[in-house]
Write a structure and sequence with these properties.
With 230 residues, the protein is of the alpha/beta class. Helices cover 39% and strands 21% of the residues. Strand 11 and strand 12 form a beta hairpin. 31% of the residues are buried.
Length: 230
């Protein structure tokens, strides 16, 4: 990764914070654009300009960060996005990640932590290769984040796709709830959380319910497996 060609979009309305971020990133060799409200941020993020990373505040004028990340993903843009906010509740983190954010950083934070997070996201993007995974008549395009079954497109949220692709990559293997939580949400949840079960139910309604052959199976007391039941 060459940071001198890496473009970062900062969507932040607090001028002091945006200037701090811009100065530090420029000194680190990044090219930086700044948007001061959600509407401008969304327009810039979904324009023909290609950004490598987006830093997105939650509380913004005109359009909040939740709406911005949701619309970015709806537009088909998979730009790695870090949500930066003073909201530190787990529910807020889950909401941001569910809507398509890749990471969540709570203010105040050390700038070195942000830089390490950006480098990690860039390394991950650099290793991504076009890949299609097939299980029975289910087909996942891991690069384009598209799913279809029996040739029929399936509309999935970013986290639903991440959960399904995690199962598909290890089709036939039982994966524990804890592992799915760590892989998909990147957070350490309490063992009694039901977030995986909730998302599995949503997945089944889209991937299994419309079809006679079921692919998502529960392994009682352990987790889930994706396999052809026939």
């Amino acid at each position: 990764m060459k940071t001198d060609t890496t473009r970062v979009l900062v969507i932040e309305d607090e001028k002091k914070t945006s200037q701090f971020l811009q100065q530090g990133l420029v000194e680190g060799g990044y090219k930086v654009d700044v948007a001061e409200d959600g509407e401008d941020g969304l327009r810039m993020a979904t324009s023909t300009n290609s950004y490598d990373v987006i830093l997105l505040d939650v509380m913004l004028p005109k359009r909040d960060g939740w709406s911005v990340i949701s619309e970015i993903r709806r537009a088909g843009k998979q730009t790695p996005t870090v949500m930066i906010t003073a909201r530190d509740q787990v529910s807020d983190k889950v909401k941001g990640l569910d809507m398509g954010a890749d990471a969540y950083l709570v203010k105040p934070f050390e700038f070195s932590e942000l830089m390490a997070m950006i480098r990690s996201l860039m390394r991950r993007e650099a290793t991504r290769q076009p890949e299609v995974v097939k299980v029975s008549d289910l087909e996942l395009d891991l690069f384009q984040h598209r799913a279809k079954r029996g040739g029929q497109a399936i509309d999935l949220t970013p986290k639903e796709f991440a959960l399904l692709s995690t199962l598909a990559r290890r089709a036939g293997e039982t994966i524990s709830r804890r592992h799915l939580t760590e892989q998909v949400w990147g957070l350490n949840f309490d063992s009694d959380t039901n977030i995986v079960d909730v998302h599995i139910r949503r997945l089944r309604s889209k991937v299994d319910d419309p079809f006679p052959r079921k692919l998502i199976h529960t392994v009682r007391g352990i987790g889930y497996v994706l396999r052809d039941s026939q």
